[in-house]
Amino acid sequence: MPTLVLKSYAKLNLYLEVVRKRPDGYHELRTIFEKISLADQIKLTKRSDGEIKIISTSSELPSDYTKNLAYKSAKLIKDNFCLKCGVDINIIKHIPVGSGMGGGSSNAATVLCGLNRLWKINLKEEELAKLALKIGSDVPFFIYQDSFAYAQGRGEKIKKLPKLTGKKFWHILVVPRVFVSTADIYQSWDNIKSFALTKRKTDIRILLSALENKDYSLLSRYLYNSLMPVTENNFPQVSKIIEVMRQEGVGASLMSGSGPTVFGIVSSKNKAMSIAAKMRSKDASWRVFLARTV
Fold this sequence. Notes:
Helix content is 35%, strand content 29%. The chain has 294 residues and is α+β, with helices and mostly antiparallel strands.
């Protein structure tokens, strides 16, 4: 049977502002996405019986595979185009589940793009992105090949950032072993009566300029995530990791998404490797990764 093997990349939020809760229950966001080299591997193999099956050795994925976003993507594209095709979706996980790095959304987008090729549907990126939004708010970003993007709305209004084309950054990623519910973090954000903790003077233009010029001093001041105070309040490990990173000289650090992943931006691979080793020595329970802009 024909097979495709694909990489499913993680993302970081270099800027995340939750503007408000919308009448439809979603949240209005402004965010800057970065695609990074930490990736799952997805193997798609055609089936002749029309079934969709998820195969994975990861114990972190739902035991009911019909709840997996990769399964939902395959079923969506199969149903939309009245196809009789089936597929085995083998997911080899490297992106920690529930880490704020978009692993599930990336898997969903990778399956959409892969089946578009495997089943010879030949949809354009924009058409795939519209389908992707039916799966989740972060999914459209992963459809596009760009390393960076600015997104609004639920995250589906994607604007490319051509001035950042070709820019590469090294990251240390630290993931504490805590389970963070995205829904609970947003609910906590909704319940805050005073938004003093999550509001501050921000300037996306200055952040974009800092990224374009690789100005690490500016990055340390303008990276922003309005969910971070909420997650830190519930999970002190996040604050601890930020503090340890700063002690090791990483000023440009932030939590990604609703957490709990904390990332640092450094100027070279050697520096990233050195700091990653020190982070591992601080707490054996922390999962520490190196990654680069894809």
